[in-house]
Amino acid sequence: MQKSAARMLIAGTGSGCGKTTVTCAILQALVNRGHRVASFKCGPDYIDPMFHTEIIGAQSANIDLFFAGEALARSLFLQHAAELNVIEGVMGYYDGTTLASDDASSYRVAQALSAPAVLVVGGYGMALSVAAVVKGFLQLRGANRISGVIFNRIHASIYPALKDTIERECGVHAYGYLPENAAFSLESRHLGLVTAQEVDGLHQKMEQLAMQAEKTIDLDGLLSLMRAQEPLCAQELSVRPLGSARIALAQDRAFCFYYRDNLELLTALGATLVPFSPLCDRELPPCDGLLLGGGYPELTAQMLSENTSMRESVRTAIADGLPTLAECGGFMYLCQRIGSFPMVGVFPGECCDTRGLSRFGYATLTAQAPCMLLDAGESIRGHEFHYWDADCTGDALIAVQPSGRQWTCAYCTDTLYAGYPHLYLPSNPRAAQRFLQKCLARKVARAENLR
Predict the structure, then answer these.
(1) What is the DSSP letter of 354?
(2) Which of 9, 53, 137, 324 could form an S-S bond across to 87 if both were Cys, CB 3.0 to 4.6 Å?
(3) What is the distance between the alpha carbons of residues 114 and 43, in angstroms, rounded to a whole number?
(4) What is the Cα–Cα distance from 385 to 20, expressed in whole angstroms?
(5) 47-56 and 19-32 are packed helices; what angle lies between their axes, rounded to 10 degrees?
């Protein structure tokens, strides 16, 4: 397939430079102008795409080269692409899977998608030195695809001088700036930003950002840059449905971290996703399978614990063989306790706040024995990012990071995956097929029992 897919990547000099703020400002301004916009996030992050989704009114998607590789990433990008496509980078532009690598970096995504990159630079406290920063990014790699700069958190009075400096010394265009403004700030917590649904007055903040972008960012210049890109080609994705099955999808304040590509793959295979709330609903909906995604169950542990009928419903269903995929926060919910609060109790031990990242980063996950998702020796790709850890995290899979570090993790049976790693199902579509086949077998068995 081939699409024009007008596009650009908003990159940054590093984490905290303001990529998300600038991206949200541009997205909201483009939507306000009446454009059809699609947004994407480099890397495995869940939270930034939630902010994009709230702005554009359609689900954002991840573009992750460790998970998908370049060919699949291009196909998924074109599958989701709209009239205009804005991709938010991750970390610093060249930061990859290890400290010394640019693998899977925003730079590599820009290359894979033939997208121009606009670098967000914090100009506070610098004058001519800002040119040294930008020039370093321009010179580190050939064919760097950096087409311009946007300054963040600077005063209007210094922008003309910074713009002149960058364009004179570095030969790239300055596309404007955002000033320092407390009204634009977004609260953080240990996994990054708070989720979009938790931000008071989010839409008001976004409208303020969009109004500022109209004043101080060269939106027309960015539109010209995006539309000047050559059409992008990729192989069209095709998935054969296996049959119709109902999969209960935990979706509330406690469980909200899901990769769009995972859910769309399951849907394409024949799943009907049935949202429910472990916080508020009394029991599981009628279903043939269960998805318990990540999130912040530690913040709602008392409420989850007090919903005893739901805990009993989940425990009974899993004991009865309901095919279940529980990642990170979903796995924590299935443990005995989160802090002092009783949970479902499928697995032993409790989850406690370690006050530091545990086993952070990408990993290739290989099964030590056959299980619901994988044959022995078969792999799938995933990611861990959590501050709360469990006494017993399982040992069914061997996780190996790009750096070479490895550990065992997860509980896997004939009908269950539960562990801290978030899985990216398109990295091994057979795993998704096997999960749905288990759900279909469950559906048939239940129908026969009712006869």
Answers:
(1) -
(2) 9
(3) 17
(4) 19
(5) 20
Rounded Cα distance between 402 and 282, Å, is 43
The dihedral region occupied by 197, where left means phi > 0, alpha psi between -120 and 50, and beta the remainder, is alpha
User: Distance (Å, rounded) from C-alpha 178 to C-alpha 150?
Assistant: 8
Rama region for 107: left / alpha / beta (φ>0; ψ in -120 to 50; rest): alpha
3-class SS at 40? strand
Alpha-carbon distance of 372 to 437, in angstroms, equals: 9
Write down the catalytic residue from 328, 335, 409, 412: 328
| DSSP per-residue codes, 173-208 | EEEEEE---GGG---EETTEEPPGGGSTTHHHHHHH
Residues 178, 217: contact at Cβ < 8 Å?
yes
User: Is residue 328 annotated as part of the catalytic site, yes or no?
Assistant: yes
**Are residues 196 and 164 in contact, defined by beta-carbon separation less than 8 angstroms?**
no
Pairing of strands 350-353, 337-338: parallel
Q: In 3D, which of 427, 419, 418, 431 has the Cα closest to residue 386?
A: 419
CA angle 432, 76, 367 (to 5 degrees): 30
Half-sphere exposure of 234 (CA within 13 A, CB side): 23
Q: What is the four-CA torsion angle of 116, 121, 127, 133, rounded to 10 degrees? A: -70
Each residue's pLDDT expressed in tens, for the chain with a length of 451 residues = 888 999 999 999 998 888 989 999 999 999 999 999 999 999 998 888 888 888 888 789 999 999 999 999 999 999 999 999 999 999 999 999 998 899 999 999 999 999 999 999 987 778 889 999 999 999 999 899 999 999 999 999 999 999 999 999 999 999 999 998 756 555 554 444 456 555 666 788 889 999 999 999 999 999 999 999 999 999 988 899 999 999 999 999 999 999 999 999 999 999 999 999 999 999 999 999 999 999 999 999 999 999 999 999 999 999 999 999 999 999 999 999 999 999 999 999 899 988 877 778 899 999 999 999 999 999 999 999 878 999 999 999 999 999 999 999 999 999 999 999 999 999 999 999 999 999 999 999 888 777 6
* This model's pTM is above 0.85: yes
Q: Is 136 helix (H, G, I), strand (E, B) or coil?
A: helix
What are the backbone dihedrals phi and psi of residue 357, each rounded to the nearest 5 degrees, phi first? Answer: -65, 135
